[in-house]
Design brief:
The structure is a homodimer of 546-residue chains. Chain A has 546 residues and is α/β, with parallel strands linked by helices. Chain A is built from 18 helices and 20 strands. In chain A, the strands form four sheets. A seven-stranded mixed beta sheet of chain A has the order 9-8-11-10-12-13-14, with helices on both faces. Chain A is flat and about 80 Å long. The C terminus of chain A is likely disordered. Chains A and B meet through helix 2, helix 5, helix 9, helix 10 and helix 15 of A and helix 2, helix 5, helix 9, helix 10 and helix 15 of B.
Chain lengths: 546, 546
């Protein structure tokens, strides 16, 4: 399908909400209220056969009764009614629907799966795109579209957030709201009967309002489409992904299964890297990434200067920086001279620049000015610990003043303690601010890694050595045979065949059914090994006796 | 020295503050105010030759002028005056001093080092114990002792926090204050001229008001004393340590040096494990650990039940749990039956227990009651994402109500979004509460690891095999020679000798000065290797030609 129909989803001119309700606290009531109060510049038309008015707006008995064809319909009615509603919408010409309703996902009953199939059959001939079912909805804050039952109205911003879990959506929205961070799009994909991650990446990659894309994934559908969309998107903007379910704990999963699944996560990891996406492992890391992409231009390189009023915090930041593969900036002689003039004589004359615990705002200002003038500095992390002798808020204010006055390298902040007032200042001045210095360093390194990935993406892989021709036919045959047998995994001997086809060295492995067989296999291997002048070749063989 | 004199530090009957000041914002003024307003049940006596009254309290011109001998003196005067003041105090019978003053640390000038030595010489004959110099001070909130220039007054509590960095102290105090977490002791050790980590561990291990000990370390003095004190302390209560400076970035450190230093951190790591301490790597991890030790009785084991209103949050928690070595509790049939009665039919009938996004407080209550009755559950993590259809605060209130009513396994909470009100409820009910589910799992696993360490500490190591006698003399000789030469590191050939003494296998390594020598060494090795029936023995040899 073309991504063009997704414009009806993200830029609708009119919206119907089917299953709008007056019952306080119900999903249908929250949906109607969110849509009507979101500031959308077009008609929102409630549909409910039992009520003539919902939220002071005229309601319609059914889809056919609507005075105009809605571009987008939001559906929150019981599962058995959904296929009929989608069919009526498609017939009238609606091209996008968001199905909030749960109960016909992949894990549902036979009846549920049948309803899901009938819904898709009704939609397909008319190219009506379906988001969901079983989702929180879709938000486009810049257009006042809040087609969701989220608990709050996010601000407009430049981050697109696409998630398979509605709960993660509300968690991230709640966190971001408190930090003053906004979104270009929030999309809860739910069960992904139709619209999936590949579609979203295709669409958002070329959306000019979206500067970064965040994904929360549990599974991938249409892997090839996903990979090509991810690669294209990551070329134009940072794509950050949380892939959950790294360690599926089926209650009594056998050890062999565990190994297989851990391997599967390794595949995701490699695929993300290959596509140039940044993978983060936890909600906190996602928060850290959002903080930086929401606020920053990309730093030019990986050389970080650290400015702190507490030595210990500097040490923690350096540990985190070096471990993540970043570098401490080496300060230019002119910078050291300028700092000598600005700081007390006991300052350590090196990066981290410890401006000492009694530092007043003026010392922050002068030290930051000196560091911003240094050509060896790609970004600056400013750290503050609370003290009784100087105000943390005034220090934040001095930092913001310097940033506002002159251009220069990216500045990040770590204000520890009760830093609500400072946080507000930093949010206003678009400075990425963190509670701990290590988290600030992590945020910085996301952007450094993004730039490194960008370079890797534009490199072609080294060519194959001339003297070597892989036997790709053999590898293809093994994989095709496994797929034909309906298997998800290669058997051990098939793995051997694939590795051998590319002459990849592998440890010699043998299978023995009894201790005696094991002893014989060992003796045989030792004898063969003695008779050779080089270590056993990489070819793997296996004697099966089990 | 005995730890008994430390009672004068932690349980003084009277306190002098030498260098108390009236200048607003000065360290001397903050010290006087903190001491006088901390609620200490004894006289606080300011000493300053220039002022007769400080903070409405009579001040004395010098130490000899004091109307009684103070148990404890806090000193914040210029470095050159400190040795004389310490001597006067020692002569009068004071047994503990906290030297706030900076400028005579190890990194200071020759004059500074001389003053430090003279200070110690004045203190030693009288067994006067010195904390500092260059520190934030000491707080014992339960006794109203605030002998520090901290920016706030912590609450009394059961955690002792000992730190080499004053900045880390204020950062942790600020964070803890906002969470309602209190401390039994806060000790800023500064340059550790006298009192060090070993002393503090010895003292705090047997302090009945201290339930857990946190350390922020950059260096260890008196290693043997430290190890034996750490081992004893960790047997009686959790000891959690941040050891910073894992990756010292000497500006142009050679690659070989980096390797050596990484190894040094490995030594710390092994020592901490051996002592039964828990090592955490960042300020956030320290916060997570504080949250759990401040609130909890230890869980009985590593089987965690997860109760969540959002499936995605459950998945993130499971990933974190399994990766950290914990286990998902397997719910008993009676528990599943009770949950069937309490939950909608679509609940997944497994742990994590997903009570679905529309869960009202009553569903939290009933599901939590069922899980607390399950004998297979060691602890329960309750997760909440904000929704528009149910109140997060009411859910928190329901959880606290269940906990207050019946005893049962430990409960942790993860409330995401703007959870200030819920946090307050949890703090009141002593429930460890986190912003993300992964951080809650990390907190849980600290206590699980603590219990595991406790078991390891009581085990004796397996005995040495009878047929093997290590040549300890050889190893001792190599190490003694290096120490005698004033070296911190073994040379490569000395490492070989130590490894060989214990018959530890090592890869054969040779050093060659030119490509030709390398080729000859390789040919020789290959020839020897061919002539053998087994792989090269573990003995390492090295031909030096460089």
């Amino acid at each position: 399908m073309s991504i063009r129909n997704l414009d009806y989803l993200f830029k609708p001119k009119s919206i119907a909400v089917v299953g709008a309700s007056t019952r306080p606290g119900s999903v249908g009531a929250v949906l109607a209220r969110n849509l009507l109060r979101g500031g959308f510049d077009g008609p929102v038309m409630p549909v409910n056969p039992k009520h003539a008015v919902i939220e002071s707006v005229r309601a319609y008995a059914d889809v056919d009764d609507l005075p105009e064809t809605p571009d987008l319909a939001v559906i929150a009615t019981p599962p058995r009614t959904v296929p009929g509603i989608v069919e009526a919408l498609a017939r009238r010409g609606t091209r996008a629907a968001i199905v909030i309703t749960a109960g016909f996902g992949e894990s549902a009953s036979d009846a549920g799966r049948g309803q899901r199939e009938r819904m898709l059959q009704a939609a397909r001939p008319h190219l009506l795109r379906v988001v969901g079912p079983n989702c929180l909805g879709v938000l486009v804050p810049g257009l006042g579209v809040n087609a969701s039952f989220a608990h709050l109205q996010p601000r407009p911003g430049s981050i697109a957030f696409v998630t398979q879990s509605g709960a993660i959506a509300t968690a991230v929205l709640g966190w971001a709201h408190a930090r003053g961070i906004g979104f270009s799009h929030v999309v809860s994909l739910g069960d992904m009967a139709d619209v999936d991650f590949g579609d979203m990446l295709d669409y958002l990659a070329s959306d000019p309002r979206t500067r970064a894309i965040l994904l929360y994934m549990e599974a991938v559908t249409h892997t090839r489409k996903f990979m090509s969309a991810a690669r294209a998107a990551a070329r134009s903007k940072p794509v950050i992904v949380v892939k959950a379910g790294r360690r599926p704990e089926g209650a009594r999963a056998a050890a062999s299964h565990t190994g297989a699944l851990a391997g599967a996560d390794g595949v995701f990891d490699a695929a993300f890297r290959r596509a140039g996406m940044l993978r983060v492992l936890s909600l906190r890391e996602l928060f850290d990434a959002v903080e930086i992409v929401a606020n920053l231009a990309a730093p030019e390189g990986d050389r970080l200067a650290i400015l702190t009023n507490g030595g210990g915090m500097g040490v923690l930041a350096v540990d985190a920086l070096v471990e993540a593969g970043g570098r401490l900036a080496e300060l230019a002689p002119e910078t050291l001279a300028a700092l000598d003039r600005a700081l007390p004589p006991t300052w350590p004359r090196a990066n981290p620049v410890d401006i000492i615990g009694d530092a007043p705002p003026s010392r922050y200002r002068e030290a930051l000015e000196a560091l911003r003038a240094d050509p060896n500095v790609d970004a600056i992390l400013v750290v503050n610990c609370p003290t009784a002798v100087a105000s943390s808020v005034e220090a934040a204010s001095a930092v913001c003043e310097v940033i506002g006055r002159t251009p220069g390298p990216t500045v990040l902040a770590s204000w520890t303690g009760d830093a609500r007032e400072a946080s507000r200042l930093f949010a206003e001045h678009r400075v990425a601010a963190y509670e701990t210095p290590e988290e600030a360093v992590r945020g910085f390194m996301y952007l450094v890694d993004y730039r490194r990935n960008q370079r890797l993406l534009t490199q072609t892989p080294p060519s194959i050595p001339e003297a070597f021709t892989p036997r790709t036919d053999g590898a293809r045959k093994a994989i095709a045979a496994a797929l034909a047998a309906g298997r998800q995994w290669l058997a051990p001997q098939e793995v051997d065949e694939v590795l051998a086809a590319y002459a990849i060295p592998a440890v010699e492995t043998r299978l023995a059914g009894t201790p005696d067989e094991a002893a014989r296999a060992a003796a045989g291997a030792q004898a063969r090994w003695r008779s050779r002048s080089a270590p056993p070749r990489s070819r793997t063989s296996r004697t099966s006796a089990a």
